[in-house]
Amino acid sequence: MNYERLFQNRYWLPKLGEITLSSLQIALISGILLIPGMQSLSEPFKSVSTIVNSGLFGHFLQSCHTYAGDLFLIALALHSVEYLLKRSFTAYHWKSWLWLVILLAVGVLTVFSGFLSMGNLESHEATQIMKHILKTAGAAGEALSGFLLMSSQNNSTLSILLHHVATFSILTMVLTYMHLKRFKADVYAFYYTLVLIAFLGLLIPASIGSHPSAELAVVKGPWYFRGLQ
């Protein structure tokens, strides 16, 4: 076997687009499997804690969902940058790029809304920061805040959770299909991504954050929110 050619053509490493699509599929599958464990939609942190503490599989499933969402966002961003660096964007119609740009924005909202809907201390603090930022955007920011959070503080987490599970997830799937004209990932890429995410889920179980009533000197959000904080 010509090992030099093997690594040169990168047959062992799936394309970023296929990893992105595979990550999305794994995130959707794991998210659906987590839904039955959400016993209280108004108290998501309690539900997530119950899932995680139910056993190794519960924490593993939650970790896979978290890492799949993170990998989807990273791979999607790298996939877009790769097109720009290779200047392969000239071979695609402008509509394909339009869907990709919109998909990137909606993808951020999908992952970010998942973090906000956790109901932990970090997500509550992040929600307040986002509210403050949206207030500075005038009428458009107020409208977006009302859509995302509703007017009642008690319904904010529930509203964001519903947007994460339904609105943004469905939009992400539709935009992905419109960009690729398919929704089935390459089999090798899917298993490659699944093994990677499962390995991370077993080796480094994802944190569910701090209890909403905890008192911490420093509250840190996920990696994609650090800049805003």
Number of strands: 0
Q: Which percent band covers the strand fraction?
A: under 5%
Element string (H = helix, E = strand): HHHHHHHHH
Rg, nearest Å = 19 Å
Largest sheet: none
Could you name the ranges where pLDDT drops below 50 across 5 or more consecutive residues? 1-8
Fraction of residues in H or I helices: 55-70%
Average pLDDT figure: 82
Secondary structural class: mainly alpha
**Separate helix tally:** 9
Our measurement of the CA-to-CA distance between the termini, rounded to an integer number of angstroms, reads 51 Å
| Outline type | globular
Could you list some keywords that capture this structure?
single chain, 229 residues, mainly alpha, 0% strand, disordered N terminus
Task: Describe the SSE topology.
Layout: H1 3-9, H2 16-34, H3 44-53, H4 56-86, H5 94-116, H6 121-135, H7 138-149, H8 156-180, H9 187-203
Helix pairs in contact: 2-4, 2-8, 2-9, 3-4, 4-5, 4-9, 5-8, 6-7
Concise summary:
By secondary structure, the protein is mainly α.
